[in-house]
Amino acid sequence: MDFYSIRRPLVLILVCALANGGYAQDTLVPAIISFGDSAVDVGNNNYRATLFKANYPPYGRDFTNHEATGRFCNGKLATDFTAETLGFKKYPAAYLSSEASGKNLLIGANFASAAAGYDEKASVLNHAIPLSEQLELFKEYKTKLAKVAGQKKADSIIKDALYLLGAGSGDFVQNYYINPLVNKVYTVDQYSNFLVSSFTSFIQNLYGAGARKIGVTSLPPLGCLPEVITLFGHHEKGCVTRINSDAQSFNKKLNAAAASILKQHSDLRLVIFDIFKPLYDVIKSPSQYGFVETRRGCCGTGTVELTTVLCNPHTPGTCSNATQYVFFDAVHPTDAANRIIADELIVQGLSLI
Ligand SMILES: *[C@@H]1O[C@H](CO)[C@@H](O)[C@H](O)[C@H]1NC(C)=O
């Protein structure tokens, strides 16, 4: 039995114990409301005029009904697993889809948009939904929710909901490192400070809009993404050390900013999920977790599917079974890897539920 198969039941037992601890309802939080980029987008970009879409195969080929929903994955996102673990039978709908209406709104909604990020200008250039606009859509959602649930119930859903934010990877991988207009002007440190200040104002505004339990993912080991290894890893084996240490220093700043926000609001719970370490552990010791391939994604060459348009039904060489791959395309983890990240989110986020 490997580490992973021992670990998963432990997480479930932990959550079941919590679930029996006095909650009458069958989900541990009333709703899940998500913001961010392609790590979290469940199909909002299908409704935008942007290149950054995943609503065609092979995306979704291991999802329910093999449907390409717009998730940048062969199967489920980490946040899908999180929703399941918390007792949800359905996933909160992509807010721009027609499913985000009526009673479906009661379990939350997803506002995330692939190629969005903390850098608002880059999000606009990518025709993604910038975080500021995601927040405006959330405010519109609150009004709709009040119509469906009544004001009092809506207020309690908004207060007790779990809010998730996953962003930042695209700011570095699809913007900073490849865009000389940015990386010749700002040092990594300066750009990180800029992104973290955008994070702070987003969280403050989200708090202002009623959120009280917020979980935010850190940056993963960006230097281990197949695309980053292909573009920047010529002279070293394994991951790109410089870029991993950039990610770690960003994560430190993110944690410091969160600590300072927490000092201002005694009724806020805010957790930064460390996804760097768990993903790095998997990449360093893949066989312990049942993986074989860590350096290239399953789809196509799996090396520089830069804008993701290169991972499509006509891409030759796509692997037949992604279960032993850590990455599905050159940037995004597989269903199997997301499951491991999700277990970490639950363990680290217990104080939120
Ligand atoms: C993929 O491989 C795993 C074992 O490595 C197996 O359990 C699973 O059924 C395979 N899936 C498909 C679709 O062939």
Q: Which key phrases capture this entry?
A:
six-stranded parallel β-sheet, Rossmann fold, single chain, binds 2-acetamido-2-deoxy-beta-D-glucopyranose, globular, 353 residues
Largest sheet: 6 strands, parallel
Question: Which residues sit in consecutive blocks of at least 5 with pLDDT less than 50?
Answer: 1-6, 20-24
Please trace the helix and strand order, writing H or E for each element: HEHEEHHHEHHHEHHEHH
Q: What share of residues are in beta strands?
A: 5-15%
Structural class: alpha/beta
Q: What best-fitting shape do the alpha-carbon axes yield? A: globular
Question: What would you say the CATH architecture is?
Answer: 3-Layer(aba) Sandwich
Query: Which strand order spans the largest sheet, edge to edge or round the barrel?
Result: 2-3-1-4-5-6
What is the H level of CATH, i.e. the homologous superfamily? SGNH hydrolase
CATH topology, which one?
Rossmann fold
Q: What proportion of the residues is helical, as a percent range?
A: 40-55%
Total helices: the number is: 12
Ordered list of secondary-structure elements with their pairings:
Blueprint: H1 3-19, E1 32-36, H2 78-85, E2 93-94, E3 108-110, H3 120-125, H4 131-149, H5 151-160, E4 162-166, H6 169-176, H7 180-183, H8 188-208, E5 213-217, H9 226-232, H10 241-264, E6 269-273, H11 276-284, H12 335-348
Parallel strand pairs: 1-3, 1-4, 2-3, 4-5, 5-6
The structure holds 2-acetamido-2-deoxy-beta-D-glucopyranose.
